[in-house]
Inverse folding.
């Protein structure tokens, strides 16, 4: 029944649940780790080297940080909260400007126009 109390209390589908053992504290330690910082730098450098002007660009809107007027983020395609095991998987990462990344939270962006 749409809008019933049972609908609002139902657990999210399995694909939307956090990985067992995942905590925000664990995620914060990960974001401060040397392994993440090194990989993040490597992803940004690879992105910059793939463009003729040598500047990193957003994967979705193709703007540089200066053009977008905001920072570039290294984003996990599959969120860390949903798949902790892919947190340091370079194939799970992409460069997004803050505008394209803001509000995404842990929802996928595939198929969304920039």
């Amino acid at each position: 029944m749409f809008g019933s109390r049972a609908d609002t209390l139902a657990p999210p589908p399995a694909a939307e649940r956090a990985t067992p053992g995942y905590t925000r504290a664990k995620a914060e330690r990960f974001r401060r780790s040397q392994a993440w910082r090194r990989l993040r730098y490597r992803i940004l450098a690879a992105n910059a080297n793939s463009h003729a002007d040598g500047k990193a660009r957003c994967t979705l809107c193709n703007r540089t940080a200066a053009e977008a007027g905001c920072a570039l983020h290294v984003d996990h395609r599959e969120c860390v909260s949903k798949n902790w095991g892919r947190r340091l998987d370079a194939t799970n990462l992409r460069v997004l400007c803050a505008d394209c990344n803001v509000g995404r939270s842990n929802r996928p962006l595939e198929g969304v126009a920039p």
Observations:
- The mean pLDDT is 83.
